[in-house]
Every structure is written in structure tokens, then in C-alpha cells.
């Protein structure tokens, strides 16, 4: 079998018998001493071998890059598909935590009622009608925050020099874990207005709730931005039933505190999830304490 060979000196191409593989001798064209290839791996010229080797290595790199790209796409796709499965349990945990917060608030309201035979007022005003102190401060002793209550100064407004130092000491019970805003803010609000259970400088009793404590909302998660926990600013009935003006992006509708809804504690101390599709009319009935209307429980 003939061995193809190219002289490295003159470039002349020829063929030699396989019997001479690995031996040296003069080139038939230029006479220079050359050595014939002695193994199959040497049949190709060094230049061709390097080029071939380079192609193999290039292909190897190309495959590696392609593999990384494909892997990244697969991981991203899996993350996209698994995100709901991961986020839903987290939200369920936050929602449960929020429900427990509201339940503690409900118990504190009843603790206040047990002592004074009335629920606390929505807020206390000064002689000019300016809101001074919130219902949240009034129930602190019934939430194991008696020491914090003692630090509060009722002789100055909620944002006075001394009380201002307490603004960053919000009890975790007042902050929903799903709320990514300021940890010292709260979206747990009471609704003040004709027919609701909350008034300024005035209180109601359980007997005043003609619709029944289990049918009337006491504290509601609002769709509006949170306020500092000491802020006694009221939430009116109109504000509670209308979309928040602060929201600018309406592509997905109103932003609810939780996935597909929000939570509330009723005057009997029970907590309920209010779905996003609960319309304003039905929500309004839940906020009124003596309208004679009862909302079916299958709606929330």
C-alpha cells in the first residue's frame, strides 16, 4: 500500500511503498533528505493535523457554550414554571401570619371592651377636632405591650416630640408580612362613618351591633398605602369602598394586600379573607353594623 507524502523542503507530492514507512532518504525531486511517515497518525501533514485538531477543539468549545446556553434556558423555564409553586406556599404562610395578627387585634378589642364595656373610639381629638391618638395605642395594654403604652404621652399629639420617638417601635402585630413597605407602617385600618362601628371620641358596645358581631367588620386591610402605626388618620367609608387614588398602574386592577384579596377581623374576633371580587356594595354592608343586611358567608 502506497504512503502519500509531501516533501517539506520543495513541496513535491509523491507516494512511497509502505515497506519504507519511517525510513529516511533523498527526495526524488530536490534530493533533500526526508523521513517518510511511520504511523497512520502521521499520514497527514503537520499543518493539516493542527488544523484538524483546531477544528475539533473549536467544535468542543462550541458544544460547551451551546450546552451552557441550553442549560440556562432550561433553568429559566423551570424557574418560571416553578415560581407559582414556590411563591404560593410563601404567600399562604404570610396570609396565615396576617390572619393571626388580626385575630390578636380582635382579642385586644374585646379585652378593652371587657374592661370598659365599650370598644375603643377610632381616635381621640383635641378641642379643634384634630385627631390626636389612635385606637391602636388604646389597645396596647391588651396586646402585651403595656410598657410601650406607658411610654406614650397623651398630653401631646401622636407626632409630638416624645411620641415621635415611638414611631419606629411598631408592634409586629400591626404590620402584615405581605406588606413590603415600611415595617413601622400599617394597613390595618378602621372605617369611620355613619353606620359603621367606629367614631371619633365615641364608642359603641356589642349591643349596638344590630347586625351581629359575626356579620360586621371591625378592622380591615386597606388597599391604600400604609400609615405610621401611631397615625390616627381615619379611613372614611367612601375611601374604603373606592379605589385608591394613589395607585397609578391599573393594568392588573387594584393592588390587594394578598393574592386575590385581603383580610379582616370582625367584631366577634373572627378573621375572614375577603376576595378581590367582593364588590363595593357587599363590602359596604359588612362595614355597617345596623343596616339589617346579612352577606352570605359563601361570598367570603
TrEMBL record:
Transmembrane segments: 63-83
Keyword Cytoplasm listed: no
DUF1559 domain location: 89-186
SUPFAM superfamilies assigned: Pili subunits
Keyword terms of this UniProt record: Membrane, Transmembrane, Transmembrane helix
InterPro entries listed in its UniProt record: DUF1559, Pilin-like
Superkingdom of the source species: Bacteria
Protein name in the entry: DUF1559 domain-containing protein
